[in-house]
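To: structure subgroup
Subject: Chain for Friday's discussion

All,

I'm putting the inputs and outputs inline so they're searchable in the archive.
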Amino acid sequence: MIYKDDPSAIAGFLEDTSNLKSGRTPGVFFPESCEEVAQLLRSAAADGRRYTVAGNGTGTTGGRIPLGDYVISMQKLDRIGEVEPVEGGLAVIRVQAGALLQDVQAKAASEGWFYPPDPTETSCFIGSTVANNSSGSRSFRYGPTRAHVRAIRVALPQGDLLEITRGGCIAGADGSFHLDLPVAGKLRFLRPEYSMPATSKHNAGYWSTPGMELIDLFIGSEGTLGIIVEAELLLRPMPEKVIACLVFFRREEDLLLFVEEARKGSGGVRPRAVELFDSRSLEFLRQSYPQVPEKTAGAIYFEEETTEEAEERCMEGWLELMESCGAPTEQSWAALDSEGLSRLREFRHRLPVLVNEWLSRQAESKVSTDMALADARFRELFELYRDSCNREGFTYIIFGHIGNAHLHLNILPRDRAEFDRAKRLYRQLVTEVLSMGGTLSAEHGIGKLKSEYLVQMYGQSGMREMVRVKKALDPYLVLNIGNLIPESFYESET
């Protein structure tokens, strides 16, 4: 096992994309096997150590940043296994937690298979995507990471290595799980009793539904219940063809109607992604793409899988839908091959780069949301964000996964006064979205930055439910303290 404590080696583990600046650690461990991860945890209580698990630094909520604890880096656990066909015309691949998402996707593609989850940052670690139940644009059709995980191997906080398979451990009628472990012994705990929001994307707190599987408790738990060291992922056959299009609209009402009809599958369309760029997003993108039409109210990007035989019929369905919703079809950008698809995806991914460049010239950081409502309420979420920011006079953009009623609002303050007003508005938006049955986080998770708002979502009783599960598996509180659950709740439960 490698251990480093010199400042130059530690510095990179005190940051991610969250802009959290308070990280500190005595040192970083680099285990080279699953057993070495378990060994660190097995001796943690006796050694008086707590650990924060570090992914590859692509997170936005400060989850990997230590606040005085030791760090366990997963980067040495990067083995990718072989693709193996299984029942149902699917395949599986076994990977270690530190394997890069882009490498796993490339391995699958090289053998004619497809791993659907598509977070924007493909340099993230697979273990992190499972621990955070990551999603992306293709979640509109395929769902988040949870839907594509068949098994995980977890290093539990007391040092056990536990293999959890889908269908292998299900909560009893009373919501209880029972484990008999070599190190921790016999454990019994109840799933949290709160209800899940009625959203298609949700990544805030421990998953809990009647008759749930143990594997789903760990997926999305942000490393607070154990360290996912390996995962067995489900693969689908590679689509024969994918078409994509960026459709510009002159009126917001036409754009929202198009989304509504596309979500319903009008005209036989079957999108796997439906993404929004509001007019302000397009203004940013026009810096790099001057061909973006002027006087545009916004744009929708969509993808659909098809075949050579069905491609023409597929495009006709989309063209009819565009025309019926008032889109100027002659201004649309279509991609009918892999090269065109790459160009349109590059356009999508250029927006956060341009925003960050703008922010680098300002004194303050952005204030952003990751909330979602029930799918059918996408209009309400868009209008809430738009009207609130217009009322306050902010510079802002709205973009993202409108098909799942999951939109990213980025407020871009120009000074401290605007930043403070933006934070106040963020709190108001959280209250409104939660009152509408939404979720605080649809894909980025809670980490350290949003834990106070999680209390607002679940209330004191819901947080205590999470603490009870946490303490059943981590009685000495050695793992990822500060993530997801505010530390004050551990003190109140002692």
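Points worth raising on Friday:
The first strand starts at residue 2 and ends at 4.
The chain has a mean pLDDT of 93.

D.
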